[in-house]
Amino acid sequence: MAIEGKDNPHARPIRLGMVGGGKDAFIGAVHRIASRIDGRYELVAGALSSTPEKALESGRALGLKEDRTYASFADMAKREARLKDGIEAVAIVTPNHVHYPAAREFLKRGIHVICDKPLTSTLADAKKLAKAAEASDAMFFLTHNYTGYPMVRQARELVENGDLGTLRIVQVEYPQDWLTVEQHNKQADWRTDPSRTGLGGSTGDIGTHAYNLACFVTGLAAESLAADLQSFVPGRKVDDNAHVMLRFAGGARGMLWCSQVAPGNENNLKVRVYGDKGGLEWHQENPNYLYFTPFGQPMRVLTRGGAGMSASIGPATRVPPGHPEGYLEGFANLYKEAADAIRAHQDGKPISSLVPGIDAGMAGVRFIDACVRSSAKNAAWVKLDG
Amino acid sequence: MAIEGKDNPHARPIRLGMVGGGKDAFIGAVHRIASRIDGRYELVAGALSSTPEKALESGRALGLKEDRTYASFADMAKREARLKDGIEAVAIVTPNHVHYPAAREFLKRGIHVICDKPLTSTLADAKKLAKAAEASDAMFFLTHNYTGYPMVRQARELVENGDLGTLRIVQVEYPQDWLTVEQHNKQADWRTDPSRTGLGGSTGDIGTHAYNLACFVTGLAAESLAADLQSFVPGRKVDDNAHVMLRFAGGARGMLWCSQVAPGNENNLKVRVYGDKGGLEWHQENPNYLYFTPFGQPMRVLTRGGAGMSASIGPATRVPPGHPEGYLEGFANLYKEAADAIRAHQDGKPISSLVPGIDAGMAGVRFIDACVRSSAKNAAWVKLDG
Amino acid sequence: MAIEGKDNPHARPIRLGMVGGGKDAFIGAVHRIASRIDGRYELVAGALSSTPEKALESGRALGLKEDRTYASFADMAKREARLKDGIEAVAIVTPNHVHYPAAREFLKRGIHVICDKPLTSTLADAKKLAKAAEASDAMFFLTHNYTGYPMVRQARELVENGDLGTLRIVQVEYPQDWLTVEQHNKQADWRTDPSRTGLGGSTGDIGTHAYNLACFVTGLAAESLAADLQSFVPGRKVDDNAHVMLRFAGGARGMLWCSQVAPGNENNLKVRVYGDKGGLEWHQENPNYLYFTPFGQPMRVLTRGGAGMSASIGPATRVPPGHPEGYLEGFANLYKEAADAIRAHQDGKPISSLVPGIDAGMAGVRFIDACVRSSAKNAAWVKLDG
Amino acid sequence: MAIEGKDNPHARPIRLGMVGGGKDAFIGAVHRIASRIDGRYELVAGALSSTPEKALESGRALGLKEDRTYASFADMAKREARLKDGIEAVAIVTPNHVHYPAAREFLKRGIHVICDKPLTSTLADAKKLAKAAEASDAMFFLTHNYTGYPMVRQARELVENGDLGTLRIVQVEYPQDWLTVEQHNKQADWRTDPSRTGLGGSTGDIGTHAYNLACFVTGLAAESLAADLQSFVPGRKVDDNAHVMLRFAGGARGMLWCSQVAPGNENNLKVRVYGDKGGLEWHQENPNYLYFTPFGQPMRVLTRGGAGMSASIGPATRVPPGHPEGYLEGFANLYKEAADAIRAHQDGKPISSLVPGIDAGMAGVRFIDACVRSSAKNAAWVKLDG
Which positions fall inside the GFO/IDH/MocA-like oxidoreductase domain (chains A, B, C, D) (predicted)? Predict the structure, then answer.
């Protein structure tokens, strides 16, 4: 393992702000841990809650200085942009409908944005955000965190290297069970409220992850889809289960299932890809293994950091094979790579990065939008860019 | 374990004939083993091949008497029906297009039929066979053999007992990889020839198994489906991969994937069912386990013959838990139960049986037909009884 | 799959008798199914119980003729030996202490013996049985049935081919849980009674299987062992758990654990072997897979009948890869191979066979004896041939 | 998930120093990540290498101030103890033989010690270190990091709650394969050099982890053991494989296997415990699951954070069930709990903690010592406190 290398100017901790992520939030704490794991960020400012007292209280709890704890993201963006040691990047970890207005404020002031997924709660917002990102000199990163898992990267390499041959079939699924019955808590409430989560329920919250993962691994994009969405729990206003058929550019076909009402599934994200030369399979819940079968040969079990891994994956692992890495390390890979990209950008030497950005985000929102449109037409095929 | 109990008149071996199953056949040998495992049948006659010499040679190899080795199923049906000790039942293990003409000959002479799946190669034949079966006093059994697995029976019981609550989601899949590239051999040839296999390729050969399994476990039937069929291997005349969305009577929704071109999959049939109270999962390749999760509780691993099994499943197992039973034992359960039904029928005391029959067969052919019709209409929803 | 080939004189069914295996027995029914699966035997005589009425009743249930249902194995041996169409082979499926006296009667009359394990209940009996077998022209087969599993054969081939290099470590275990608490039933009673089961409890019943499996796969024999035996259940007269360290000829070392009191284990037999070039692992409860890792390469999952299997294993499988075979098919392989050997012997053209015989049986009894001797000396090392 | 809570004085980052962990080290980086994950430590000083330039270079890379980068741990202990904002705790991550001399310097100056395992390279050093710890007001923590895994804690709770009944059997194993052939690199070199690693090779490096885990989960200590150690790789001066039988106080018996030469095993640590009421099993390589079987009931799969977990485990998890946590999060739990204990100690309100300390360390060294003594006597039973 390498020393962390903070003497490298690129590795000096980046001053980070956070929008959302106050008390009772879930994903904010995940982002904070992910930012800490490799020591590449220092959290120095926050607009942690839309409730002023909670924002203050949460900032205090996190050890933020009082004058850098803000009651709104707009205030934070304005003031931090003027500070000499203001934040260089901001993590946006709010419910979906706040992603666009928040990101806009920082992007227009040249502050890099690390935003949770999906990109926005509406396609209209997504388009505006895309423009805002394009107009800005700052970078935009979207935490489709499953792309940070080393074995997902390895899967992508196998495809890219042609080890699967011409791709034919993509099977991806993301079942959960936590919304099997009606739930009332902070996490469930906004995720089942169309005004905050957007039109898609399970499709937006986890379907986008599944779709993103399929695209990331295969390098393909869906041209059209046919979706049959359900809201099984009485009174639920957004889908809690979705069956989707996909047609990818180039001829591959796929199926995507996402569900929040499948008892026995926690975060059972799986992706399987088949070509005319081989197949692969990866499971998020035991993520350190990749199952690869060259057609006509026995299945090989690739392990994170073990024999047969591409050298390029090395920097995305921290401990020896057999010592499992998990969700937070995968998430941290995105933060680390975003840090590399930010420092390179500041040096005027931009680098390419695997961290998803606006394009992946736009693809995700188009996916949700297409699912909803298709389902409204009795699961007719619709184009994703329609 | 019980003694085999042949003193019971019901248990006296049944005189069995076979149509198909000569040299180089696969499924014929499976039927013969399945018929022998519990000692309930004695193979005494055969029309084992449509090639006369091969029929003779195969009959000799199997130890059949020469005068009971026939050159055609029609000859066999005629003569056996007249013999005092003629066959009581016949196993039909030919390519699909022969199922109907062969079954008809035996049914009309009151000889019970045990037929491989799918029921027929066309819907027209299926309807005719259904009429022939109705007109006959003989019984008709269809070897959707996966229904014979004890844990599949247990899954069905859990659903029936309400342990899953109201069913919402059915996920079933049957991927294989043996047709990933063009193949030429006895098994591949007829399975990829529409004139023998029927219009459906993977849908007919394995999709029907998957669909049957889903229906058997849930007790549900699909009302409509939307199917996207592919023939990935250049020149292939039938589908080798199918993506299907299902809508069941009563509101449950499903997805079905079958494939013959998914490298790394041998006979990877899996079924998962979710209701508002629980979920279950079963894998054919390790069939002695059933994964059952009551919502809000830890997953329970039920084992064949182990704790928590329904008493009714007992007779379908032969060895203690932890000693795996497999494909042949599941298949043998159908043969054993057909034997029970035949003897009861002969005694004039008909019994109910879980062995699939004409109805399941008709449902399977309707499934294939609907898949082909839907796919031809760009995966539009079609009714199964359309 | 091949046709069963009964026209081949070698394949003509062998006339089989059975000693033990009456009502309420377990292993007798297993032997009968195993003998039927490939159609190579016909059960024609039996001394099925030491209780005359039960013997008669069981024979009738099995469809045996009354005059070939015997009240004692001695009667059966005498009369069958004189019959023109008397039995050619006998299956001995009694409690352990009857193995020797029964086998002796048949061996001395030239009737081939297929005997359940362990060979005998005492070392003295084992030596006498070995002499009896040597003195007889008939063959003796011992159903260490786990050696019949195709993937166990494949494991043996990998070792034999040098794919593991020089062997260093053998880890074998066979935990069960059915005797966790005091039990009273036919199966438990004789297995916990030293006068019937022998001095070893778990060591005799399952430890011998584990030891045999380790030797079969590796081709090694233990020179010495150190055993710590326990009888955890109060009042139990034989061991119900055993911890054993092994030293093999040639320098490999091993550990063996067998237990009847390990809750959560049904028949959880596993073997792992490691050499300087690779390692392998096999699990009885999911027996169609073999995990093989050449050192420095990813693990390969070999599947029964799949890619990478040795051609020699082919005849030991019946259905395509992905269709699981289980305990009964493995058992049936021994019966089929014994049939081949018997027919070849009758033709005066003896063939070699992988079915365990007297030597493996003697090794098993020496293993039990050594375990008991070592444990009595506080787990001191003892020689197996001591 | 809770906010990190740094406003709580207990949660204010602890000033941390590090001994060892410079360039090319492995475990130092692990400790640093573990210390960062929950934001409870700030690394401010280091004696990172015994080579002065490397120490300086490593310190610079880590962003340490030059005047707090030391050429020796002795210098660091002396100066930091005098600084107003000197380190409050030190992480010792050197090869084993340095643990004692380094720990002594900090303990005698009241600086808390977080030390990697095993405690020391010799029993003599261990005894001296125990005295030094007792004499000091500072606390001593030993990173037997596997005890930090939530499901290991859950296993311990099940035992403690009596869910397994009276314990009978403990099976623990820790196989690796990285030393299957001779290796020369920084990690391998000191681990196979008795002057740095101590007398035990695999027993010291991983056997102690296995033994510690068994004791942690069961609450038992071994009274005596019999060990058969091997050095399979020619020329290796310490054991690379060990077979150990254990006798625990109270009557439970165990087996322990550790190996560095078992191809196909990375860090395949597993523990299984059986009592008269139930059994459990845990695997380090997929650590988010615990398999628990109450005798006579189906196995239950407990998941980290899922249904059926003890409330007390909650604080040791960070993300929802189904999102895997791994090695680093388990390690971080020890750091977090050490931080809680240090702050409480500073407040004069000591709290109990599950982090292993001197006693566990002493038990580990006694375990190694007993293994070596027993093996030298041909695996005779020896007492651990002998």
Answer: 152-281
Same domain, C78 and C215: no
Can you state the angle between helices C150-160 and C208-218, rounded to 10 degrees?
A: 50
Q: Indicate if the pLDDT at residue C189 is higher than 80.
A: yes
In a domain, C386, yes or no: no
| pLDDT tens figures, D251-309 | 999 999 999 999 999 999 999 999 999 999 999 999 999 999 999 999 999 999 999 99
What's the number of domains chain C is made of? 2
Torsions phi, psi for D217 (to 5 deg): -70, -40
- Alpha helices of chain A — where are they, by DSSP H? 27-37, 52-61, 73-82, 99-107, 123-135, 150-160, 186-191, 194-197, 202, 208-218, 327-346, 358-376
List, in order, residues 6 or more apart from D24 with CB less than 8 Å away: D186
Q: Among D129, A253, A4, which Cα is nearest to B229's?
A: A253
Q: Supply the DSSP string of A80-101, one letter for each residue.
A: HHHSTT--SEEEE-S-GGGHHH
Same domain for A87 and A123: yes
Cβ density class D108-118: b for 16+ within 10 Å, e for less = ebebbbbbbbb
Q: How far apart are CA A205 and CA A221, in angstroms?
A: 19
Last residue of a domain, one of A138, A164, A188: A138
> Is residue B177 located within the same domain as residue B134?
no
Is A95 domain-assigned? yes
Given CB atoms, is B20 within the 8 Å cutoff of chain A? Answer: no
Same domain, D162 and D134: no
Cβ atoms of C249 and C230 closer than 8 Å: no
Q: Find chain B residues with C-beta within 8 A of C303's C-beta.
A: 266
Residue pair B290/B155 in contact (Cβ under 8 Å)? The answer is: yes
Mind telling me how many Å the CA of D76 is from chain C's nearest CA?
Answer: 42
Domain presence at residue D47? yes
CATH number of the domain encompassing residue D230: 3.30.360.10
The secondary element (H helix, E strand) that includes residue D326 is none
Chain C residues 260-279 with a CB less than 8 Å from chain D: 261-265, 272, 274-279
Taking a C-beta distance cutoff of 8 angstroms, is the pair A70, A86 a contact? Answer: no
Judged by a CB distance cut-off of 8 A, whether residue C36 touches chain B is yes
> For residue range B126-154, what is the model confidence (pLDDT) as tens digits?
999 999 999 999 999 999 999 999 999 99
The answer, as to whether pTM is greater than 0.90, is yes
**Chain B to chain C, count of Cβ pairs less than 8 Å apart?**
156
First to last CA, chain C: 47
Residue C72 covered by a domain: yes
C172: its two tokens: 């074998």
Alpha-carbon distance values, C165 to C158, C162, C272 (Å) = 9, 5, 14
D173 and D131 share a domain?
A: no
- B172 and B195 share a domain? yes
Domain stop point among C104, C138, C172: C138
Tens-digit pLDDT profile for residues A106-128: 999 999 999 999 999 999 999 99
pLDDT digits (tens, 9 = 90+) for C251-283: 999 999 999 999 999 999 999 999 999 999 999
Of A76, A69, A121, A67, the closest CA to residue A94 belongs to A121
Q: Which one of D281, D290, D301, D310 would you mutate to disrupt binding with B, by most B Cβ within 10 Å of its Cβ?
A: D301
Which residues of A are less than 8 Å from B179 in CB distance? none
Residues C279 and C173 in one domain: yes
Subunit partners of chain C (3 or more CB pairs within 8 A)? A, B, D
Question: Side-chain half-sphere of D368: how many Cα atoms within 13 Å?
Answer: 32
Indicate which CATH number applies to the domain containing B29.
Answer: 3.40.50.720
**pLDDT score of A10:** 62
For B39, the domain range is: 14-138
D133 and D154, same domain (yes or no): no
For residues D364 and D372, the answer to whether their CB atoms sit within 8 Å is: no
